[in-house]
Design brief:
Blueprint (H helix, E strand, L loop, with lengths): L3 H9 L11 H4 L2 H24 L6 H27 L9 E6 L9 E6 L1 H9 L7 H7 L2
Helix pairs in contact: 1-5, 3-4
Length: 142
């Protein structure tokens, strides 16, 4: 079973912390979480009010199109907040270079270099070893 987070990883990939380091806001995320919760509630009210204000003569497809367009506009605001506080996320198709020390059993301690995209990194280093299980999603909501 692939959880929603697992699909996220497969779609966008992951990167090592050295490529996308922690920020103050990611380490102390309480205020950011509160802001996002408030904005998402505000956005849901905006969408509900917009839906209620649309003429009943509109087709279901037209209503859906109007609401989706507004949702995209509102999600851009969320992306702006997230990018301003956490930094712009790495693109899933843009290559990066990662330098690391080879350690562990049989490791020599020498510097190794890997180059690829976040998707390739996920597939190479985490995809098979650390699959997200069904309990992961439940723990995110607690």
């Amino acid at each position: 079973m692939i959880t929603q987070y697992g699909r996220f990883e497969q779609t966008y990939g992951v990167v090592p912390q050295a490529v996308y380091p922690e920020s103050l806001h990611s380490s102390l995320s309480g205020p950011l979480n509160s802001l996002l919760k408030t904005k998402l509630r505000e956005h849901s009210l905006i969408l509900r009010r917009l839906h209620a204000s649309l003429p009943s003569t509109m087709s279901e497809d037209d209503i859906t199109s109007v609401l989706r367009a507004k949702k995209e506009e509102l999600m851009q605001e969320i992306y702006t907040v997230m990018s301003a506080t956490l930094g712009t996320p790495p693109r899933p198709d843009r290559k990066f270079t990662w330098e690391y020390y080879e350690t562990g059993e049989g490791g020599s301690g020498r510097v190794k270099v890997w180059e690829g995209t976040p998707r390739e990194f996920y597939a190479r280093f985490t995809g098979t070893k650390y699959k997200v299980g069904p309990n992961f999603q439940a723990s995110m909501h607690s």
